[in-house]
């Protein structure tokens, strides 16, 4: 009863209802090639396009989709543009995390009243399929949250985009379903600042916290807090570096991204073994933990539905909480800089984030840092 009461109070206090993730926009050096990569390697499908052919003069965007996940890949067409400067500083990476809301103007006005920094005032965009209202605010670094209101729209993606069809090349999906969570890396002593931002400006709650005792190895450490919106559909863990003997993965990210930004996008699947096999066959590379991890995994997490052998073969990690267990695996960075990567996750009841895997995972990351010469 008490838990239900708390949940009810949280819902009543949710002054910024969010239906889910609308899209994630990445600024990339070559949007056409990036779209081909996400289709080929991850099984996304062609969806929409905007650029010279649709009247834009400064950029080309390609949109790819898999189930509920939409990635917008945007490149500049000329030198000296805002997009180009962003890529020059940060490399390819996430610029916009768009949130699907019922009333974008209300969400924007509420955020501004509570202290947000404006990125874009509400704009209504229209075409023959209806209208969309979008407005944006800044979060950590140069990352933006765009509020997207599309209840009066039935087009392919957004006004200004045309349907993008590639009849001769559409690789099959790999079973990715939706964005489970997205992790931001922020600077030294900045985690609590951004926790407060999400609490005060957007009505999120801090649902989990990990300190450097939870997330540390012999050499490196970090701290993390998980922020969740009222209905739990949006989860943003926020990482900051902690003191260790050597440079942590968060410090490495901040160095190479040259600022704060999205570290990884976690995408859900209903069959992680099938999905990871498929992704590996298409050239996606994953972090590996030592085989000894699997010698004690059932002692740690108890009985699970899956056989250990394929998990060991593929390098999939397992963890359990009070509500069930989860299976997860992390790609190597998908950009030349050691910055953004993807997590593939399958939840079998668990609502947590794999705390029991942190040590093995971060030791695997340290091995990659050693190869890159950045662990010092």
From TrEMBL:
In which residues is Fe cation bound?
Answer: 181, 264, 343
What InterPro entries does this protein map onto? 4OHPhenylPyrv_dOase, 4OHPhenylPyrv_dOase_C, 4OHPhenylPyrv_dOase_N, Glyas_Bleomycin-R_OHBP_Dase, Glyas_Fos-R_dOase_dom, VOC_core
VOC domain location: 20-150, 178-332
State whether keyword Metal-binding applies: yes
Q: What cofactor does this one take?
A: Fe cation
Signal sequence, renumbered to the chain: none
State what protein this is by name.
4-hydroxyphenylpyruvate dioxygenase
Q: Which organism is it from?
A: Croceivirga radicis
């Amino acid at each position: 009863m008490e838990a239900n009461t708390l949940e009810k109070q949280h819902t009543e206090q949710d002054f910024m209802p969010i239906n889910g993730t609308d899209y994630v926009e990445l600024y990339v050096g070559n949007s056409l090639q990036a779209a081909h990569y996400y289709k080929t390697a991850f099984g996304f499908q062609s969806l929409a396009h905007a650029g010279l052919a649709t009247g834009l003069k400064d950029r080309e965007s390609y949109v790819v989709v898999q189930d509920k996940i939409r990635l917008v890949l945007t490149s500049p067409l000329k030198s000296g543009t805002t997009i180009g400067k962003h890529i020059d500083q940060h490399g390819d990476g996430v610029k916009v995390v768009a949130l699907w809301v019922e009333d974008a103007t209300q969400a924007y006005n509420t955020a501004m009243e509570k202290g947000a920094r404006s990125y874009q005032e509400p704009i209504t965009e229209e075409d023959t399929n209806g209208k969309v209202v979008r407005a944006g605010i800044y979060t950590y670094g140069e990352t933006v949250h765009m509020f997207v209101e599309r209840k009066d729209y039935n087009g392919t993606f957004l006004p200004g985009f045309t349907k993008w069809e590639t009849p001769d090349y559409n690789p099959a999906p790999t079973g990715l379903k939706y964005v489970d969570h997205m992790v931001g890396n922020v600077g030294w002593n900045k985690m609590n600042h951004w926790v407060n931002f999400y609490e005060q400006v957007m009505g999120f709650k801090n649902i989990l916290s990990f300190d450097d005792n939870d997330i540390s190895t012999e050499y490196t450490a970090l701290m993390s807090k998980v922020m969740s919106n009222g209905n739990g559909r949006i989860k943003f863990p926020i990482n900051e570096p902690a003191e260790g003997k050597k440079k942590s993965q968060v410090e490495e990210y901040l160095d190479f991204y040259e600022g704060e930004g999205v570290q990884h996008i976690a995408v859900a699947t209903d069959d992680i073994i099938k999905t990871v096999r498929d992704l590996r066959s298409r050239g996606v590379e994953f972090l590996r933990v030592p085989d000894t991890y699997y010698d004690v995994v059932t002692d740690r997490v108890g009985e699970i539905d899956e056989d250990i052998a394929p998990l060991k073969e593929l390098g999939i990690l397992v963890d359990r909480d009070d509500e069930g267990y989860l299976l997860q695996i992390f790609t190597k960075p998908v950009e030349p800089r050691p910055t953004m990567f993807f997590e593939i996750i399958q939840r079998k009841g668990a609502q947590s984030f794999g705390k029991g895997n942190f040590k093995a995972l971060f030791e695997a990351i340290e091995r990659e840092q050693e190869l890159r010469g950045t662990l010092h």
